[in-house]
Amino acid sequence: MTSKAIKSIGVIKKQTYEDVAAVLKQHNVIADPAEIHGILCGLLSGGMGHAQNDWVNVLQDTCNEEGTFNEQTLFTLTQVFNECCQDLIEGQFGLNLLLPNDEASLNVRGVALIEWVQGFMLGFGMQQNDLTGCSDEVKEVMADFSDIARMEEPMEEDEESERALQEVIEYVRMSAMFCFSELGKSLLDDAPSPSVH
What are the TM regions of this chain, as residue ranges (predicted)? Predict the structure, then answer.
């Protein structure tokens, strides 16, 4: 699929964690949808342009894919990328993390959140490998994300743990959007400069 084709594909319907997981499994791609979504959000929040296709190579390297993704896998991942762009650019805190639905156990959702955060840190770090130029708030977010990424304690299946998980998910969601608001590029940044005659 050409880069022109990749850019022209819009968001047909919102991809769910389960949708993406099924496609990846079908084509033997060893990757977690949450981690992939986190990487894409991290790349964009760190300053990667929306018109760039660098994310494809990043995901292929992360998934240890030799060669290129097949057409269906690339189509699905392009949908996920476009959704990331749309959610982050539109703002109004509309970003939804690609996590398992509520039918999954707390521990499954908790592990997926950790995968998402680890992916975000990887993608963000590829764009901002030195945080010295970032605000104190962004540095604090990345420190918190580092703590979340190292969480290992299993969660009890009770209401208190459910509330705690939802609070962490909301913090991660809002923090990712904050990073994008500081360092991410708008569509105008990706627009070609007018030619001078």
Answer: none
User: Quick check: 138 and 194 in contact, CB under 8 A?
Assistant: no
Query: What pLDDT does residue 92 have?
Result: 67
Confidence of residue 51 (pLDDT cuts 50, 70, 90): confident
pLDDT digits (tens, 9 = 90+) for 122-144: 999 999 988 888 899 999 999 99
Q: Which amino acid is at 79?
A: Q
Q: Which of 98, 83, 66, 67 is nearest to 9 (CA)?
A: 83
CA angle 104, 93, 165 (to 5 degrees): 30
Cα distance between residue 130 and residue 96, in whole Å: 27
Task: Give residue for tokens 């918190």.
Answer: 144
Statement: residue 8 has pLDDT above 80: no
**From CA 128, how far away is CA 181, in angstroms rounded?**
14
Q: How far, in Å, CA of 194 to CA of 177, rounded?
A: 30
pTM of structure: 0.87
Cα 66 to Cα 29, 74, 77, 109, 196: the distances in Å are 11, 14, 17, 29, 43
